[in-house]
Amino acid sequence: WSSGERHLRCTEGGKPRRQQVGHGRRPGGRLGVLRHARGAQGGVRLRRHPQPGPVRHQLQGRHQQGQVFPQALRQSPRPLGRLLANPTGNIQVSTWTSTFTRSTDESSQQLLTEQMLIGRKKMGTYAVEIQRLSIQLMGAIVQGLGLCPMHLQEKLGAGLQFMALNNYPQGSSRAGDTVGLAPHSDIGFITILLQSSPGLEVTHHDDGGVWTPVPAIPGALHVHLGDHLEVLSNGRLRSLLHRAILNTDEERISIASIHGAAIDEKVGCAEELVDERHPRMYRESSFHDFLDFLPTNVKAYRRFVETLKIDSA
Ligand SMILES: O=C(O)CCC(=O)C(=O)O
Ligand SMILES: [Fe+2]
């Protein structure tokens, strides 16, 4: 574990190795380095980059980029951090920042920073437990689809866990339902979400924009189906369209843990769910394809899964 302003250090067989993190592109650029680091023992962390670099930018992706969710993201959550963890709990990439809240003064920022340092260790434990839970849940979901429960175990075990810590400012009381995070569905198979207070809202795809608040039950975990589960199930399951609104009386924190296949692993429809009556509905894609898709999704937001539909132009 180590970090520097523009360096990334990873531990290989206990020996620290330092690599310059440039602005290179794949395969030799940051993603190449990160991919290598994922395979190496130990962990790797990026933090406090003065300018968001390509990877950080991509990983923070849709949460931060006003371009991706125009207008609505004006009030976007300030990410507390982003991290990727592997199933053994090594946090592979994190982008914790110390200036993570807009609405608190300097002393409370300092306090929060200290709490974050303590929290980082707890987050490691949380990441491992949540990953374990995701594998159990996916086993049940896959079985429910009539597939062998082991179907995805390997893919998930070697897969990607992407955690987003979102800090939403208090909304102005006059603003009513101010959107903190614009409507979207998550990539990956499932997302497990913990929220500190209400704010999460969901809609049925055919509802024509009727949003239902999800009550915040202390300690409850919310499970969202992601785009790749919609693909895997050949459309039998639909990914969850959701958004977050700002509370008028308090800030809000949520932790979303997205679980999917490895970054370059292509996910397609399960062959067992494709037949004459159920033709293949989606092209296969990887998490990486999703990252490449993000910059093209600037003007009008489109769910990634929509672009995978075989009949979509
Ligand atoms: O804050 C929330 O309730 C939702 C967060 C979310 O959807 C995400 O991070 O993908
Ligand atoms: Fe989400």
Automatic annotation (TrEMBL):
**Any one GO MF annotation of this record:** metal ion binding
Region entry Disordered: which residue ranges?
A: 1-31
| Compositionally biased intervals (Basic residues) | 16-31
- Database matches in Pfam families: 2OG-FeII_Oxy
According to the lineage, what is the superkingdom? Eukaryota
Q: Where is the composition biased (Basic and acidic residues)?
A: 1-15
Family annotation (Gene3D superfamilies): B-lactam Antibiotic, Isopenicillin N Synthase, Chain
Domain Fe2OG dioxygenase: residue ranges: 159-261
Which controlled-vocabulary keywords does the entry list? Iron, Metal-binding, Oxidoreductase
Family note:
Belongs to the iron/ascorbate-dependent oxidoreductase family.
Give the matching PANTHER family.
Answer: OXOGLUTARATE/IRON-DEPENDENT DIOXYGENASE (PTHR47991)
* Protein name, per record: Fe2OG dioxygenase domain-containing protein
Q: From which organism does this entry originate?
A: Aegilops tauschii subsp. strangulata
